[in-house]
Amino acid sequence: MATSARALAILTVALCGFGCSNGDGSHTDEPAEDSTDALPEETVCDETRRPVLLVHGGFGGGDNYEPQGQRFRANGYCKEWIRAFDYDSPANLNGNTSAATLQEMDDVVEQMRSELGFDKIHLVGHSLGTSVCRNYLLQPENVEKIERLVHVAGGYDPAGTVPTLGLTSRGDKAVGLVEYPGAENLELPYLDHMEIISAESTFVEIYKYFNDGEAPQVTAIEPTDRIIVEGFVKNFADNTPREGIEVEVYEIDHLSGERISETPDHLLLVDAEGRFPAWEAEPDTYYEFMIPGGGEGGRDLHSYRQPFVATTHLVYLKAMPKPGSVGALFLGGLAPYTDDFMITVIQHTNRAIIAGDDSLTMDGIELSRPELTDEAATIVAIFVSDENGNGVSDGTPTARLAPAPYLTGADTAIPTDVDGPVEITLNDATLRIPRWRANSDGNVLVMFQDR
Ligand SMILES: [Ca+2]
Q: Could you tell me where the beta strands, DSSP code E, fall in 59-181?
């Protein structure tokens, strides 16, 4: 079809393929700041697709949509056509969405419309993000900017001002199965409240709704020849960008968790929007991301995840929140900061951790226990520290986190004076990392993702 051939706008040309980046082999030893010069351009993408703006739920960020971003791109969408709107969720938890947040969202919508050349874009909201989308669309001047809305697992009715698809699942213990008035409603397979936003089955329905019923050609996240990683560094919860910091990326030895070289493999300077420059990851390779705390008293954060398998542009490197922020209220109580023990947060990024179904251990201690990770609680992150400072793993659930959705913690003393790494295992995936001293070295974030 001539039209679709023309539609495949694009020029493909690798600015500089493998040939020029490794022609003399010298670049690999340079600890210089990253440049995108040697990275390939997007291969083929379709600039005629209507752009999509993704709005996360409470305490979330654009990274909640990372797998969907990969799937959209695998089906021909251009990277810049798939963007996330990050808002301060603690400030908007009551569902009323502040004027400031609505203005910030409109700025992003306007930017996409003008930069990409579309009168209307598509919108997806998840959980608390459905209230943000609803409130945005209750402003009459915004209705004409949005073609269609997908309303996923929301505790709020959509405004009904634009054509809307409602997606819910009876596996979602937070919201459950809902028929939204004024929407076309679909029941998805059994998916928990976090899984529902990253699942393949959800992608299929979103894609079809935005493409006149046409099914996507690709739904699995397949390995890509080269793995280009892009994204943001933002503070946990309020999503403020960490402008000006330099993230140090180290390749690590999977068995010891130690950095292979003390010189960072990449230094990522974060811009005013929180964006870090694109870099190329090696397949089957484990990395440490050291996110400096900055000058405001926040601590360094050592962040780990499983190896990248495919090009991705919604990677979020979470930073420790500024002291005094709502995010810090949750994390701040992780004390005591001593050098004898670690302070760690373990996160499952695309579904809940469920006692009975999942085993999650740190240093051999099972953390997926009924009192912590009951299915009804939809727990996606577990805080691990010796909260009462007695040097013993008491296992007591963290009272401070009890009112926080999706988060839990237990008094667990992981010592730093033991030789060798600490091992963290979620089912059949294992990460090994150094025993960072909480006071001197900072906090640790470990992320798992189902494939
Ligand atoms: Ca204790």
A: 82-85, 121-126, 146-152, 164-168
